[in-house]
Amino acid sequence: MDAYDVFRKLTRGIKFDTNKFHEDAVRFQLIRPKKPEETSLGRASAKESTEKDSTDPDADADTDADALKKKTAKRKRDENDNDDDEDEDDEHTERTEPAKIKIKSKKEKSAKLIADLKQEDINHFRNENRIYVSGSDIPKPIETFHELQNDYKVNPILINNIKSLGYAKPTPIQMQAIPLMIQRRELLGCAPTGSGKTAAFLIPILHHLKGPRKCGFRAVVVSPTRELAKQTYQECNRLSQGLGFRTHIIDKPAKAAEKFGPKSSQKFDILVTTPNRLVYLIQQDPAIISMNNVEWLVVDESDKLFETGETGFRDQLAVIFNACDSPDMRHAMFSATFAFDVEEWCKVNFDNMVNVCIGLRNSAADLVDQELIFVGNEGGKLIAFRDIIKKGLKPPVLVFVQSKERAQELYRELVYDGINVDIIHSDRTQLQRENVVKCFRSGAIWVLICTELMGRGMDFKGVNLVINYDFPPSIISYIHRIGRTGRAGRSGKAITFFTCDDVTNLRSIAQVMVSSGCQVPEYMLQLKKPTKKEKKKIARSEVKREGISTTPLYDIEKEKKRKKMIAKSKKKEEESSLKSSPFLIEHNSITNCIHGTFRGTDQGQGQGQGQGQGQGQAQGGAQCWPQDVGIIAMEVYFPAQYVDQSELEKFDQVSEGKYTIGLGQSKMSFCTDRENIHSICLTVVHALLERTGTDPTEIGRLEVGTETILDKSKSVKSVLMQLFEQSGNTEIEGIDTINACYGATSALFNAVQWIESSAWDGRYALVVAGDIAVYSKGNARSTGGAGAVAMLIGSSAPLILERGFRGTHMQHVYDFYKPNLESDYPIVDGKLSIRCYLATLDKCYERFKRKVQSQTSKVFDDASTFTLQNADAVLFHSPYCKLVQKSFARLAFNDFLSTGICDGDLNDLRLAEFRNLKLQDTYDNRDVEKAFCEYSAKSFEAKTLPSLSLAKQVGNMYTPSLYGCLASLLYTKSPLELAGKRILLFSYGSGLAASMFSITVSNDCTLGSPLQKLCCSLENVSSRLESRIKVSPDQFTTVLEAQEENHNKASYVPTGNAELLFPGTWYLTSIDGMYRRAYEQKPLKADDSLINSKMKSLLKDEIFPKDQ
Fold it and tell me: What does UniProt list as catalytic (predicted)?
């Protein structure tokens, strides 16, 4: 190598003006002098020769090369010439062997030309799909998933799984990210929402891991929210089906030590988790989860995770990254928006990173039709929203607000607007959030109100509309919010409300809309550009907005005062001694003066006030108690299948009409082995909390009434606590009450007395009644049934228990009992049972009337005694409907004996023969029964028959029977018909225990009143009754026989078809060897009162498996 070669090497890459310094360039042999006199040995002549020889392939290649050079810059031509010069070791060699050197040069140029053309095709393909990459040695994008199998030897099972999930062709991010990750390249991927990022990193991970191994986790996916983590977990399971991978999600950190710790089997491969849970397990001593063998760490929604402050996870990510110390470790980050600090961090910490961006950075999907609506002020938002509903709302719809408090306010406004609406935010329990997501996916929820929690990553198929009720705090937030629609090639719409308070960020959002092809008014683009300081302020602190609620200011202030008084009372209770008499007086004075309502306004019925004041004065001078305590809300549940009583008559070979006329029953609901007392109570309580929007923390007492026992020690109430534990509410008093069908009434009395006592802490009480009534083969089997009722108890209720008006009778009798705990079937003495029922009814009615007369003489029109004329409705515990009619006639007979009043259709002379009879002598007197059934027929039809709708179609629900009648009355009568009425109720439980008491209905029946809301909440009962599936008596009998055989078995898996349960139903999934039962909830759907058409179309034989 001579001095010139050294000079050329040192100056390579430096631009040299060969025109200006031509002589110097020749001197240092940077260029060669022109030699026009040279012939075939000269370069010019050689070029001319090749141009003339068009048949020579080398000449053609050289011609094409020259054409390509003309399109490039002169600098590149010079560099190529310099490269050619450097390749020449000797000038003499070039001249003596020109043909050999020339041929070699042309072949090299031909190969380079092919490579350039190929790269040009790749670049063209990337431009067509808006794929922008930066980095070195980037592989070509794939066009079909078949290329993965051909080029990268991806497992055919994985390819088939991809096809089965509906991936027809790769999305742009998948085209480039998959080959990159398959080549173990670290990357930062940015692609619009709904573009398939999850599959883009899961497919190469599954390819790399090959198959399951026993060495702990080898791939970790970190997501910012549990909802997104669960979605990724489900997608991973679907893609890896048949490959044997063990994918896990950390749902219960407390159990993770046993599941993932050093002493575990280490038979797991992929972990999907949120940062906090993983960090908690890593930082234990010793670490519960080992990250030593992790080969891939993927961070989803990386810009969110890299945020600083309370909403970010930067510190947690640092712990996770440091814990992954495998030498084969690779990283990947994905997000829908681009963050500069994330890119800078990746450049420093990633090995040979590649940046992949789909479309313009921080732009919205062009499939979303975006609209900005000026609403004036906060009040205009609700008007605009309801206007959208009025014009026609096409669900599903996502509504974004800026805070949990505003989400609750908007929910309270919309819940009674006739649309299926729900709410999700970080304060809701994980179980509640999962159920809401399930319901939204299945269509049970039409409108979902949410905070930023749902703005990232969640993939809901077919979201038609996104409404930004509150203006997004940043462009990033806006893109993620509206990205919930317009996903996977579907179109969508996004509407954003804005007020004068949102002008600061309006220009930025308008520019995003313009970049995605939407039109905005010109003035928005001319607004002043916000400064960095203003942007940070908006992103970090919420805009102060007026409340959404339309509740009158008076009621709002009263509610604040109530909460303040409760807080003050609790504080004093903690600081003072419970034995201190002054404290007790002051505590009772504060607590009992709480007039505020949880649901509605005070009604001031008056009856309770007088009693409360008297008792309050007796306890240290307190002047008032919680007013109008009673039932605020109700929910009813019954199974989704029934047997027709007329068909059962034929099957049992009894006389026609024995069940339908003699008992007054038309249909009977029953449970399969998928349901038990735990599941039906879980269903009805969960439904009540969700439908009324009651937070589990608002429940202070939980009373359960049942006679169905699964465990001699463990209560039903303890099973129901799983609905409250995740919200952190374990301070709930109350327990199960058991005495045949009387348990629910005892539970109701306990709940009311708790609220009226000094022990009340200001929260609701919840009463749950549930039973499954089954009988052994025979005529009694037709009096079975099943169901559950839940009641929310509090002050200022629409249904108020009248204080002091109660008649009770208790007695030791063996009329109906269940001594054999190994069987569900009772021992029943039919005649004795009916006699005891009627005799107890007489005693309770007589004692009730005596209590009324002793309490006051001003309540009723006839001050001498209470009669059926003083009750607007009369409800009974209903073993069967015919007994109820006889019981009403029995009360009419009582009135006749005590007052001599006869206002029926019959002549008084026809009843005169019964005037001197004694009650105890007439229980078997058919003449008395028949005469007074006829005498009271019209009153029965007006006062009792409307309450028998459920009893007639469901059967004997045992404990909830009486309250099922109350629910029937509420959904068959309008609020206007019920307002101000008095309801008389008789509760009976064999063995025996019974009470008669009364309820008064609030006078306020206006729209939005507690009474109107209560009646509306029960309107779907009729449609649910109609939507049940009829089962033949033969199948009904088969089910009962199977349940009898498997009763109380351990290590049992139910065989009933869970798909045919009502949406939202909790059901039994298994019983382990230690009799521990596991339950799940069936997702809701668009109309939770109806079974969908697919279920209706199933054959009857599919309701219960044939092997039963």
Answer: 707 (proton donor/acceptor), 741 (acyl-thioester intermediate), 877 (proton donor/acceptor)
